[in-house]
Specification:
Structural class: alpha/beta
CATH architecture of the largest domain: 3-Layer(aba) Sandwich
Number of strands: 16
CATH superfamily of the largest domain: HUPs
Number of helices: 9
Radius of gyration: 21 Å
Shape: elongated
Distance between the termini: 63 Å
Number of domains: 2
Strand content: 25-35%
């Protein structure tokens, strides 16, 4: 029988990372298309909570307890445990979220197993020869579709390219022991730093208000922040604004930043270059405020308001405040 499809559950602050629910949803779809078994794997010092959450999306979840992940950088440790489990269980495809931890885990797992890897997938379907992986390359200027030439491989999935959907019924969690010794050097965690941020994480926000070069500087982002506050959304930015030092990298959206999928994306002073477009084009509704009617964003926005954002923006804030009382 063909090997199973695995979705790897990443643990963040003791809970299952959202990107892993997206990978699990995709794995389930691929399993249905290919007729293959679909399973999840969670490796953590205390995997139970994350494994239970992953079982909402998959029929079977293997939970591996590994105490070292509580005091050391987890990616290498998780990859070693996965490599030993791969040797034993022989899956055919592993899906991992393409976040910082997922990318590191995939890289180490590739080295340990010798499996090929396709990275930053924006879509995966099942073809006659196996998974067909869509990827955005050259800064988003081109799209490619690749098929793994080997019988087994690893694919990392970009955030927010799949809508997470729980399965019709909850799966089972099976505690699993992998007792092979850890051979790679352990990297101790000496200190953890948390950046103060918005109440709403930009990747999970239903509304994103983003600013680009057109906001003119750090002062211009006060308008962006004010609109985000009155709308109950998160603040985003283009790479140009981040590179200019107007706002933190954590807010960057695009090819070299984060991918968002909100219900509303309000773009202020953003030209809509392809590198930014790939990070927000899946928003349900895109509204652009720009003084240039020929800006690329006007071609794909659902609504383009042509005007000075420092006139339109305050008027919009006032109208929203009046409406909400």
């Amino acid at each position: 029988m063909a090997g199973a499809i695995w979705a790897i559950g990443e643990v963040a602050d003791g809970a299952l990372a959202r990107i892993s629910t997206e990978a699990a949803t995709l794995a389930r779809a691929l399993g249905s298309a290919s007729g293959r078994v679909v399973e999840g794997v969670v490796v953590d010092a205390q995997p139970s909570a994350a494994a239970d959450e992953l079982a909402r999306y998959l029929p079977r979840v293997l939970a591996i307890s590994e105490p070292a992940t509580s005091t050391h950088a987890p990616a290498t440790i998780v990859a070693e445990r996965l490599a030993a489990l791969v040797e034993r269980e022989r899956p055919s495809l592993i899906l991992i979220g393409a976040g910082p931890e997922g990318r590191d885990t995939a890289g180490v797992l590739m080295a340990l197993t010798g499996w090929p890897v396709l990275v930053n997938a924006v879509g995966v379907t099942w073809a006659d020869d196996g998974p067909a992986v869509d990827m955005s390359i050259f800064g988003g200027k081109l799209s490619t579709t690749s098929v793994l030439a080997a019988d087994a491989g690893i694919v990392t999935i970009r955030p927010n390219v799949v809508t997470a959907e729980p399965a019709a019924s909850r799966g089972s969690v099976e505690p699993t022991i992998v007792d092979a010794p850890l051979r790679l050097p352990l990297i101790p965690v000496r200190e953890r730093l948390s950046e103060a941020g918005a109440a709403v994480a930009i990747e999970e926000a239903k509304i994103v208000v983003a600013g680009g070069r057109g906001v003119g500087g750090p002062e211009g982002f006060r308008l962006v922040e004010e609109l985000a506050e009155v709308l109950g959304g998160a603040v985003g930015a283009t790479r140009a604004a981040v590179d200019s030092g107007w706002i933190n990298y954590a807010n960057q959206i695009g090819q070299t930043g984060k991918i968002v999928k909100p219900q509303l994306y309000l773009a202020l002073g953003i030209s809509g270059a392809i590198q930014h477009k790939v990070g927000m084009q899946t928003a349900e509704t895109i509204v652009a405020i720009n003084r240039d009617p020929d800006a690329p964003i006007c071609d794909f926005a659902d609504l383009a308001v042509i005007g000075d954002l420092f006139e339109v923006g305050p008027a919009l804030v006032a109208a929203l405040r009046e409406q909400t009382g």
